[in-house]
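subagent[fold] <- orchestrator: predict structure for attached chain, return tokens only, no commentary.
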Amino acid sequence: MARGWGRMKKIRKTSNRQQPESVVNAIIAVLKGSLIAIIITLIFFTLFAVIIKVADLQESIIPPVVQVVRTLCIAFGGLLAARASKKMGWLKGGITGILYILIAFIISSLFGESNFMGSLILSDLLLGAVAGAVGGIIGVNI
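subagent[fold] -> orchestrator:
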């Protein structure tokens, strides 16, 4: 009888590994990915501001650099969120990207001019969702 009980323990242990991820863990992964992406973005923007000041670059270079930095940071945040669970990376990455854009919008509203442009925020949300989803797909597969 003891022998059969040992098998039950093994079955229980393996079935615990296959249980679905909790919603709380998924939310924490998405929040963590978004916040890390925001922090990395702020670091890059600070470094870029110093480079612009020191190198005396034209202001026309700012918008493309900002878009590239934001897109790469969103993709990295999506990668981090998806890598935490190895499931549904595109969804977690997409949500991470959308949350990143919303947090960035709130931060820019607090520190800058608060002008809400509907089409601009929608295009940013789409960019965030797509870049995050791509990062999430990569994160699940590495």
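orchestrator: received. Logging for downstream: The radius of gyration is 20 Å. The first helix runs from residue 2 to 17.
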